[in-house]
Each structure stands twice: as C-alpha cells, then as structure tokens.
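The records we work with from here on pair a chain with its fold. Each token is a code from a learned vocabulary of local backbone shapes. A record is reproduced here so that you can trace the correspondence yourselves:

_____
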Amino acid sequence: MTRKGQRLSSRLRRGAGVASLSVLLVVLGWLVWQQVSRSTPMRYFLISDLIVEGNQRVPTAAIIDSLALPSHAGILQVDLKELTAAILRNLWIKTARVSRRLPATLLVHVSERAPRAVVAADRSYLVSEDGLILQEASSAEMSDLPLLRLHADHPLETGERIDPARVEQGTYLWQWFHQGTLGPDVQVREIQLEGDGSYTVFLDHGLPYLRFGEKDGLQQQLDRLAQALEMRGTTLRELEYADLRFADKVIVKPLPKEGA
C-alpha cells in the first residue's frame, strides 16, 4: 500500500471512531434525559400556569380539579389524552381539548352542553340536544324549557341517553305552538313521547289533545291540521282531539254539543 493510501485509511478509521463515539454520546444523552425527565422534571418545565377557556356553566376550579395534576407536574410528562378524558367525565362538558404552551402553560378549551328540554319520567330531568340526561330539573328550569313526558320501563339516571331525534322533534313541536301559529292562546302543557314513536301534544285546559306521527314531517302534519280547521270552519276549542298520524287524512272529534 502506498503512503497516500495508508494516510487515507488512517483518516477513515479515525473518522469512523469519532462517528461511533458521537452516536454513543447521543444515545447515552437520550437515555439520561429520559431518566431525568421521568424522575425529576426540569424546573423550567414544571407547570406554572393553567388556562381554561370556553366554560360558562362549569366552574374553572371544577375543571382544574378534574385534572388531578400532581403538585410538581411537568409540562412534557402529562398525558394530554388522559387529561381530556378526565374533563369529559363531567356530563356538562361536550368537547374538550388540552394542549401545551411551552415552557410551562397548560391550555384547556371546552365546549359545554346546554339544556334542550325537560324530560319527565320517574322524575324531571334536564336533557341536552344530544339526548344526554344532565341532572334533575328544578322548578325554575322547568318553566323555561319544553316539557316532554316519557314512559320508561326503568328509573332514569343522569348520564343515560335518550334518542336525540325524539328530543329534537318534541322540542320543535313545542316551539311551533309557542310561536303563536294557531293563536297566542294555544299553548302546550306537555308533549308525551309515545312508545310507538308518535307524539301526543297536550294543550292548555279547554283545548284538545293532538296526535302526531313519527314518519311524516312534523311541519306537513301541522299544515294539515291548519287546513282541516279551515275547511271545517272550526277552531281547536271546538275539538276533543285531532289525530294527524295518517298521510291521507286528518281525524278530528268535535266536542259533544250541549244537550246531545
């Protein structure tokens, strides 16, 4: 081998040794960092600020408490998925997102459920638009929300879910009457969710009860009711009940006349 070849071979061996040493140092450094970060997080990355956004009903303190963070939690060590799951155990929280803002801030953004209706069964409950039973309803809350009655074969519990489509349709019916479409004095006392999927609307005293089906659109059934009243030249107060569950007809029963 020539001198030039020997010098090149020597340089290659030294280069390979330096590269191997560099790789070894990097691996050792990573292992040491992993061990240090697990046991004693760097003070620089200890969580010092926690920001909660998007909550109105659920107190910020309650959300922070649900995280159950240790006193010396490091921003790099916390499991964001586990923290999100802990927040979502609160029934009032619909969505949650937890993120890091280095070096030491944890950000929590939530969206909350809102009561959509009161469902009365064994007790009265606040129910969200996605059908989740949130909590028992107070008398004040019952006065401001649609009242839907459900015959359940078991006592309901918070966290249980009711078909959201039925909640939405029952609420739609309630709001339609309360908009005064059939007159300002035509108001709903409660709407019963029947076992066959239909709805029975109980109006204020002196007014008939109405049956609505689940298959036809509710708006079409309401339109048929208005048309039937116009054709007969009568008002709701002159009826005992009206059945709108059929696509090709409206069944109405007039109140018996005096002396009949």
The chain has a mean pLDDT of 83.
